[in-house]
């Protein structure tokens, strides 16, 4: 949420007491916005009526200065935060620390490791744009397992054979889907393009050979994706540069790295068979 690299370094090298001392000495100095700041701010400013409550785990005195609406804080004094996340029924936990992300996922909490580009592309401050990969992020990694074990030809054959069988939902999918009621409210008024949430499925799948199953799966869940982009293995970074999402979720680091290089804030979901390759 905030740029706290210096504070984190003090904590790791000198311990919690020096960390607290440093924070008190600088408590009137606002933090710089971090990688997730635009994502969180547009959620809170656009959707306050829909009970979206960001919960910073680290000190967050800068939220007022940065005009960020936050209702809850959780300052753990160095203790593990996972129990608090579960108590708050947290939908999504983002951290730059992959160890904490792995701990959260192990408890069934949706989580991802966030990466910030050197230069972040400007994003909308009125419409939340979220881009997802499909397999192992929204869906289970069952199809990805076939690719890794048997190759693309077997994968295409499997997807064609199971086109009408929805993919399983990832129990701790990387982020909650947009509120269907909010979407439907705008769609019913013929204002789809004005909806304050816009979602993008950005997948390496091919539209011709394996895309139908992905779309039918989302439809079976009662979800609508505003844009579905099937790249047939092409790099995702250039397309994401055009979309300019607030955040992009993928389970494969080379896609995360490619997106980050093109200026997109990206989050790695360390789940599924791709983590073993």
Q: Determine the number of helices (DSSP H or I, runs of at least 4 residues).
A: 11
Q: Give the distance, in angstroms, between the N- and C-terminal Cα atoms.
A: 30 Å
H/E element string? HHHHEHEEHHHEHEHEHE
**Unreliable segments of 5+ consecutive residues:** 48-52
For the residues shown, what is the average pLDDT?
81
Could you tell me the strand content as a percent range?
Answer: 5-15%
Pfam families: 5-nucleotidase
InterPro entries: 5-nucleotidase
Organism: Polyodon spathula (North American paddlefish)
Protein name: 5NT1A nucleotidase
SSE inventory with pairings:
Elements: H1 5-14, H2 16-25, H3 37-46, H4 82-87, E1 93-95, H5 98-106, E2 111-115, E3 128-132, H6 142-150, H7 152-161, H8 180-188, E4 197-203, H9 211-220, E5 227-230, H10 237-243, E6 247-250, H11 253-261, E7 266-268
Parallel strand pairs: 1-2, 3-4, 3-6, 4-5, 6-7
Antiparallel strand pairs: 2-7
Question: What does it look like?
Answer:
The chain is of the alpha/beta class and 277 residues long. The chain is 36% helix and 11% strand. The protein is built from 11 helices and 7 strands. The protein has helices at residues 5-14, 16-25, 37-46, 82-87, 98-106, 142-150, 152-161, 180-188, 211-220, 237-243, 253-261; strands at residues 93-95, 111-115, 128-132, 197-203, 227-230, 247-250, 266-268. It has a 7-stranded mixed beta sheet. Strand 1, helix 5 (98-106) and strand 2 (111-115) form a beta-alpha-beta unit. Helix 1 (5-14) runs antiparallel to helix 2 (16-25), helix 6 (142-150) runs antiparallel to helix 7 and helix 10 (237-243) crosses helix 11. It is globular and about 60 Å long. The model is unreliable at 48-52 (pLDDT under 50).
